[in-house]
Amino acid sequence: MLLLAVALAACGTSSIAPLLPTDEGVLRVVALDSLDFDADQYEAEVGDIEIRYVLDGMQGHSLVIEGSENQLRLEVSGGSTDSGAIALEAGRYILYCDIPGHREGGMEARLLVR
Ligand SMILES: [Cu+2]
Questions:
Q1: Among 7, 9, 52, 111, which residue's Cβ finds the most Cβ atoms within 10 Å?
Q2: How far is the CA of 30 from the centre of ligand 1 (A)?
Q3: Interval 54-109: pLDDT, tens
Q4: Which ranges in the chain belong to alpha helices (H)?
């Protein structure tokens, strides 16, 4: 509990999604039918990153990481969720939805791995 409190304090207030909003160690990303994710930037810890992709809407959406499209592709539609894991080194990445037109419509976000 102390560790969690320290982690939360270190995050401060911003539009960055909390590291552990629901499940410990799982990066939760929500897809919105407005062709958006629920945050502009996500953060995760170096190593095997488990991502849970949740749809808040009805349209089908995907989630891939630029440059690692062949390693992980999550897909949601009609209220479903999807999850998977990917190993990433420290750095800055771009998440996006690869359904035609969606990224162009704004469906991308940054991922900071540290
Ligand atoms: Cu999409």
A1: 111
A2: 11
A3: 999 999 999 999 999 999 999 999 878 999 999 999 999 999 999 999 999 999 99
A4: 2-11
Map out the domains of the chain as residue ranges: 2-113
- Residues above pLDDT 70, as percent of the chain: 79
Task: Note the CATH number of domain 2-113.
Answer: 2.60.40.420
Distance 60 CA to ligand 1 centre (A): 6
Measured in angstroms, how far is the CA atom of residue 48 from the centroid of ligand 1?
24
What is the model's pTM?
0.78
- Report how far ligand 1's centroid is from the alpha carbon of 12 (Å): 29
CB contact set of 24 (below 8 Å; sequence gap of 6+): none
pLDDT of amino acid 13: 45
Cα separation, 59 vs 34, whole angstroms: 9
For the chain, the average pLDDT equals: 86
CA torsion 71-89-82-74 (nearest 10°) is -40
- If you average pLDDT over residues 14-21, what whole number do you get? 52
